[in-house]
């Protein structure tokens, strides 16, 4: 699919002040790569869990090894609140360089860790570095684009990002054939070096007039400004509830397929199919955004995902909570695709009134939507036992909340998005 507006990004374009001119394709490829680093730090290490258990004398099947992912995600969540304000003060380029360096350093420390405790510390540091990529690919997109064009760029970047969960575990398995799980961690440091080199080519994108002071008072004021903006707050809450629906599947998808349906062997296939469908959906939404605008796309997505979850409830109720695996899987993948479209599109709309503090705003919105979405998902996941009904009901409830907050955001920011 062609990138939106194949002409070069120049200093004359809205909010664009890069050191050098770059085509949209180049910018999108760069943003997709740095966002991929986040997924790489999660999915590539999963195949090494058994080897790590053996090397550090953890009990077979021990859940302690899952802390490798948990500490990484904690670092990602907290790190966003650090890198966002820093990028608004010192610029995107030096912040990317610093953040990715922390990412690579954490990966190397994990590779040479002498104990499991050191691995966990390294993973937290690694996650702190990964948080910079999460904030900055959004902030850079806001520096260079606005309105519908920004929505299209983020939709394409997110579509490419979804390749990570499909290819990263296989890459990890391939590296394990060397006999050293440490190589998986070290490979992330190599990607960090590539990101550093590429970032130097891209240059700075923050308009000097949008630089902010870095001190506790101004940082807290920036955090408050996000919540004080009715439009940004509404979009943020809409994305939080949409993320809640998405995280229900992330938390319970594998147990449902394995324990409720008894087809754990099909989980990888369904996961891959879902990622492909979501990627295609995002690409199509990019085209649709060009035709009807980001606001209409996000409204259609919210209504459709709620309706699809409602269909899931009807199917569950008509089959004692257990529709066929393929019927449940199909409706779930469609709902997840619509939820996935909500996030980059909603983010582009939320940042529209906050262009002067895009780094801080992206950090606060990212932290709130992920943390809030995870908490909302936990409320539903604990109710899932022998049927899929709670998942579908949760999708309807959270979908209705998404539509409610989305409507309030649009009322607060009625101006057309170009």
Could you characterize the architecture of this molecule?
- It is a single chain.
- The chain has 418 residues and is mainly alpha-helical.
- It folds into two domains: 207 residues, Growth Hormone, Chain: A (Up-down Bundle); 184 residues, Growth Hormone, Chain: A.
- The protein has a two-stranded antiparallel sheet.
- Helix 6 crosses helix 13.
- The two termini are 21 Å apart.
- 50% of the residues are buried.
- The N terminus is likely disordered.
Write the topology of this structure.
Blueprint: E1 8-9, E2 22-23, H1 24-43, H2 49-55, H3 67-90, H4 92-112, H5 116-144, H6 147-161, H7 163-176, H8 182-202, H9 216-228, H10 230-260, H11 267-292, H12 294-317, H13 325-350, H14 358-381, H15 389-412
Antiparallel strand pairs: 1-2
H/E element string?
A: EEHHHHHHHHHHHHHHH
Total strands: the figure is: 2
Rg (CA only): 21 Å
Summarize the biggest pleated sheet: 2 strands, antiparallel
Cα(first) to Cα(last) distance is 21 Å
Work out the helicity level. over 70%
- Uncertain residue segments: 1-20
Structure described in brief:
It contains 15 helices and 2 strands. The protein is mainly α and 418 residues long.
List keywords for this structure.
single chain; 76% helix; disordered N terminus; 15 helices; mainly alpha; Growth Hormone, Chain: A; globular; 2 strands; 418 residues; two-stranded antiparallel ribbon
